[in-house]
Design brief:
Strand content: under 5%
Structural class: mainly alpha
Shape: globular
Helix content: 55-70%
Order of helices and strands: HHHHHHHHHH
Number of helices: 10
Number of strands: 0
């Protein structure tokens, strides 16, 4: 029991360090600060809805905190450009999953989070990046992070556009639902529906 308690304490400490690291990466950008924390929260809910166990959920939460770590190599003027990116600038942005893996190359994690970092922008229909994986080639954890990452990006203000309402964002994602595994998409929609119902009850109270 004592060993189990100490392991649990170590996990909590590790998660706190990773969370703080992820937040420090975002701290220079007022548009994305808090993004990783929100993605972690959404992703945990989707993972639980899909029956993932505690070890898998921990990996997903840690992966959420670090999924954009490679963006520290993206020039600030590209990352925060107020207008449309050129093709060349977009190609730079698309390198951040690869750069994230390179930055963490020498770090051994007790959880399998590197596939999340590399493949959270892959799409079920094969149109994602950086490796154009298709279908079940994409790890479930990366797919979960990917779908909630899109939702948070759409519903928050960015340098190049204003925030969408949740309803508009979900309608946009419905039009693009071929990007995600069907069971992941349905679990995500269920989580969002429950969140909306909870918010409406809180407002009514």
């Amino acid at each position: 029991m004592d060993v189990g308690r100490k392991v649990a304490q170590l996990e909590e400490t590790f998660q706190a360090v990773v969370r703080d690291w992820g937040q420090s990466i975002e701290s220079s950008d007022s548009y994305t600060f808090g993004h990783c924390e929100r993605v972690a929260g959404y992703a945990e809910e989707v993972a639980r809805a899909m029956g993932q166990d505690d070890h898998q959920i921990t990996a997903i939460r840690l992966g959420a905190y670090l999924h954009d770590v490679g963006k520290i190599r993206v020039p600030h003027e590209v990352l925060n450009k107020p207008g449309r990116l050129t093709n060349e600038e977009f190609e730079v942005i698309r390198m951040h999953p690869v750069w994230g893996i390179e930055l963490l190359e020498g770090v051994e994690f007790p959880w399998d989070i590197k596939p999340i970092i590399r493949w959270h922008h892959e799409k079920y229909d094969g149109t994602g990046y950086p490796d154009r994986l298709r279908g079940d080639e994409i790890p479930l954890a990366a797919m979960i992070i990917g779908i909630v990452d899109v939702y948070d990006a759409l519903t928050t203000t960015r340098s190049y556009r204003g925030a969408m309402t949740p309803e508009v964002a979900l309608a946009e994602m419905e039009r693009c639902k071929q990007s995600w595994r069907p069971d992941v998409y349905e679990a995500f929609r269920g989580v969002m529906a429950r969140a909306t119902e909870s918010a409406e009850r809180a407002t009514a109270a």
